[in-house]
Design a protein that fits this description.
Strand 1 (about 25-30) and strand 2 form a beta hairpin. The protein is globular, with a radius of gyration of 25 Å. Strands 3, 4, 5, 7, 8 and 9 form a 6-stranded antiparallel sheet that branches. The protein has a 6-stranded antiparallel sheet with strand order 15-14-11-10-22-23. Strands 16-13-12-17-20-21 form a 6-stranded mixed sheet, with no helix packed on it. It has about 400 residues and is mostly beta strands. It is built from 2 helices and 25 strands. The chain has 3 domains: about 25-125, Immunoglobulins (Immunoglobulin-like, Sandwich); about 140-360, no CATH class; about 375-404, no CATH class.
Length: about 400
Amino acid sequence: MPAVTGVDNGSDLTIYLSPFNVTSPGANCINLGSNISWVLPVGCYNEIMVVAQPLVPFTINPSGNGSAYTANATYGSGTAYESGFVVYKGPGTNVTISNLANATLYYFKIFVRYGNEWSSGEEISCSPGAGTLLKRGDFLVVGVNATNSCGAGPGTGVSADEISFVCFRDITVGTTLDITDNGYNRSAGFPGRWGDTEGVVRLTRTGGTIFAGTIMTIRFDASGNGFAISPDANWTFTNLNAGGVFNLNSGGDQFHFMQGGNWINGGGAHDGIYTGTVLFGFNTGTTWTDYANSSQQSGLYPKLDCYVILPATGSDYIKYTGNLATLRTQRAWVDQINTVTNWTSYPGNCAGYNAAIPQYPLGASITIVAGGYQRGKWVGVKIRIGTYVPIGKILWFLTPPRMC
């Protein structure tokens, strides 16, 4: 090393010979699979490699320039590695692994390569389970009390929240649902990302099967602690965003239900990432607003416009009050509940919301008949723009379709 002329600042120089590890590794096991995510490392690197194996942690680090390893997200199809396999190689931030065995503990280790050098790796683990995987259209919110200060029982009091929802599939033991009140597109500096200072909570089903059509009610107290109220208390609540608290603001707020992913808080100014499916969004305000940089605003998540409720006038207390007794297909129920005229708001009236029928915390359900949910319904607007005189045909303009 050549001689250096200057003044010693008293600090040691640290030279790293290996690439840095990824940060914020996460594992969310699902039925026969797992979603693995991470935040890319600082400094130089060529690729990320993920390996998976059952029952025991990894003990060996990879070597060489990476050419000896072939990855496949179908477990068992990639290069063998210790007692498992290579499941991912590339520059990305997540992978969904399939072909795992339920009720088996798997270890996943994420390595970073730069040239022939490898990081020490970050290891995580989880056990796949037989929970229910939902799609958009399988989940609807039917009631929100954003300030349940007048209620009684767990999860009530000043700044407490109550949310009622229904699923069109049976909810089995091990099912997870994630909910956040972080806004989407909060900061213009991070488009396509979430705010990262509010709550992200995972609900995990621990009791028996909840049958399709059963309306479920959950609550959060002012500290973000979760409680399952109806039809039973058999859920656990886990905070996924350290330092964030799920707490709906009075005077307008938004929340989203999600599933099958991991929450990644990159530590920046509202650059959160969710790697799974966003199922449904609810807005107690009056508009979806991108880049408002406010805890009371959110942009509309892409392609979710068929799976959101936005009341005509904002209210902290609003519920679906249409007919619950009518037998309908899933398609008909989605259309019915997504129609805002079938909702009633109770501005500033906590007691009025709680007393109004249906009282979801006391138990309620809808009946779903055969017919399923056929996606692709066009719900745009047809506007008459004139008549083509030679053949006497009316001309129509069709707004861009929402294929719900």
